């Protein structure tokens, strides 16, 4: 079975993300009783409802495709290798959603033979749909995106996130935060890696670093950043790999400086 073209996968991702976003929009503003998956890791009924919709939609449209989803894990149609794997985060920013803080999204990506080829990230509060297909650029509401041209970290707005284990291992995270805080024009931490990468693609942020991320957190946003002209690597500048759980992303112009800041922090520790 051959894989659909990236454009077809992108349009499907947009459709799926918008439908799941409607579920989240319905729940936004309500009182929630989230469950704890970990000490500070939450899940709500809307995570599950959104994911169920996404899994059903993918199975109906593409019955031979595999899925990796946050709440239900990996699923495959059978023993034969699937032509496409979908990476699904039904609610990126669950803590924000649970507190009715308006910064969360649905993230849907597709990869073929391990290569990201399509993605959509939908913010249902702002009704912003970010979409990308390999080789065709990234868009917001159909308008082409381009990363910023900021050339120095001291002029840059940088974004990050803290891992769920930050309380157990603050030494692995806080030195990076302090180093960028002292050098950048500003730092933001707003709780959705997928949206952060889309904001980088749109030129709203100039750089991003974060660790302990899962593939579904990053997949669609990484493609968005790349297709908008950005660079995504590991902390040391090595090739980015979804399963390695860390990323350094930028507009390209400040990438080496950001890499140097991270390296200096590791040396200091």
From TrEMBL:
Highest taxon listed in the record's lineage: Bacteria
InterPro entries xref list: IMPase (IPR033942), Inositol_monoP_metal-BS (IPR020583), Inositol_monophosphatase-like (IPR000760), Inositol_monophosphatase_CS (IPR020550), Inositol_monophosphatase_SuhB (IPR022337)
Enzyme's top EC category: hydrolase
Stored CDD domains: IMPase (cd01639)
Catalytic activity: a myo-inositol phosphate + H2O = myo-inositol + phosphate
PANTHER family attached to this UniProt entry: INOSITOL MONOPHOSPHATASE, INOSITOL-1-MONOPHOSPHATASE-RELATED
Record's protein name: Inositol-1-monophosphatase
Species whose genome carries this gene: Eiseniibacteriota bacterium
């Amino acid at each position: 079975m051959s894989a659909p073209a990236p454009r077809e996968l992108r349009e499907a991702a947009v459709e799926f993300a918008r439908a799941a976003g409607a579920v989240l929009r319905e729940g936004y503003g309500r009182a929630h009783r989230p469950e704890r998956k970990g000490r500070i890791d939450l899940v709500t009924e809307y995570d599950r409802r959104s994911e169920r919709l996404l899994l059903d939609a993918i199975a109906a449209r593409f019955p031979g495709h595999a899925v990796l989803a946050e709440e239900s894990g990996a699923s495959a149609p059978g023993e034969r290798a699937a032509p496409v794997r979908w990476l699904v985060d039904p609610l990126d920013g669950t803590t924000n959603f649970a507190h009715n803080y308006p910064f969360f999204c649905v993230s849907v990506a597709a990869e073929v033979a391990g290569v990201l080829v399509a993605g959509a990230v939908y913010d249902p509060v702002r009704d912003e749909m970010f979409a990308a297909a390999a080789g065709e650029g990234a868009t917001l509401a159909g308008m082409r995106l381009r990363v910023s041209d900021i050339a120095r970290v001291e002029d840059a707005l940088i974004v990050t996130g803290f891992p769920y284990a930050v309380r157990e291992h603050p030494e692995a995270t806080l030195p990076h935060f302090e180093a960028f805080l002292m050098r950048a024009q500003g730092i933001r931490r707003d709780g959705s890696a997928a949206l952060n990468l889309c904001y980088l693609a749109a030129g709203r942020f100039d750089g991003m670093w974060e660790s302990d991320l899962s593939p579904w957190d990053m997949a669609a946003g990484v493609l968005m950043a790349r297709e908008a002209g950005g660079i995504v690597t590991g902390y040391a500048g090595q090739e980015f790999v979804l399963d390695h759980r860390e990323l350094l992303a930028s507009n390209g112009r400040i990438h080496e400086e950001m890499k140097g800041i991270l390296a200096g922090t590791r040396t200091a520790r």
